[in-house]
Amino acid sequence: MSKASLVVDVVGDPVCPWCYVGLKSFLVSRDALAGEFDIEAHFRPYQLNPDTPREGVDRHAYYRRKFPDAERLAAAREAIKANAAEAGFSFDPAAPAHLPNTLKAHQLIRFAHRHGSAEAVALGVYRAFWDELKDIGDDGTLVEIAAASGLDRDAAATMLSSADDAASVAAEAEAWRRAGVTGVPTFIVNQRTGFSGGMAPVKLAAALREAAAMTGGIQQ
Fold it and tell me: With 0-12 CB in 10 A as exposed, 13-18 as middle and 19+ as buried, what is 84?
């Protein structure tokens, strides 16, 4: 029996801690489902804070304003850590001190799609922000991620300086918002049905199976 094909749009923002969980959990789930499905992933842009200045802002100050209940924030961070552990990794959701504008990071991920390196670049961007505490709004940081993933350094730098490319990616991110995506990560399966949440791999795999059944992605 041949395997069914699934195209999964993974909509997220690298500065969203639940998106880091969602990305890693999705990759674990995809590998676990490899015997059932051929899964093609598209990493799509979304900006939680599109009005963030290009130079970024103090993340701790931003979180104090947005989440004034310190106990609820601490509980949410513990939940993030627990789900990350189920996805087989760990990180500190409170660690980054700088909150960048993520438009350029999304530009790089889309650029990587055109060169077959989207997964490596997406992981590189998330790791740079959450684990290495780097500024992923900085061209130099992003060019280094591109080069480490096998992309041409000069081509990446040229793309990142393109106002047209920036406008195109911003429009795509806004299109997801207009399409009804209000929280990330969101997973759209076969362009027909979707679900949201940085869930553990077992739950995510089950959600992918259910979405496959709803979209006709399971072959009998």
Answer: buried
- Mean pLDDT of the 122-128 span: 98
Residue 193, strand partner residues: 189
DSSP 3-state helix, strand, coil percentages of the chain (rounded to 5)? 50, 15, 35
Tens digits of per-residue pLDDT, 142-162? 999 999 999 999 999 999 999
Q: CB within 8 A of 135, min separation 6: which ones?
A: 56, 98, 100, 141
Residue listed under structure tokens 């041949």: 2
Q: What is the pLDDT of residues 164-205, one digit of tens each?
A: 999 999 999 999 999 999 999 999 999 999 999 999 999 999
What is the dihedral sign for C-alpha 177, 178, 182, 186?
Answer: negative
Cα 49 to Cα 21, 35, 52, 169, distances in angstroms = 19, 38, 6, 14
**Whole-number Å distance between alpha carbons of 181 and 188:** 10
Q: How far apart are the C-alpha atoms of 65 and 72, rounded to whole Å?
A: 13
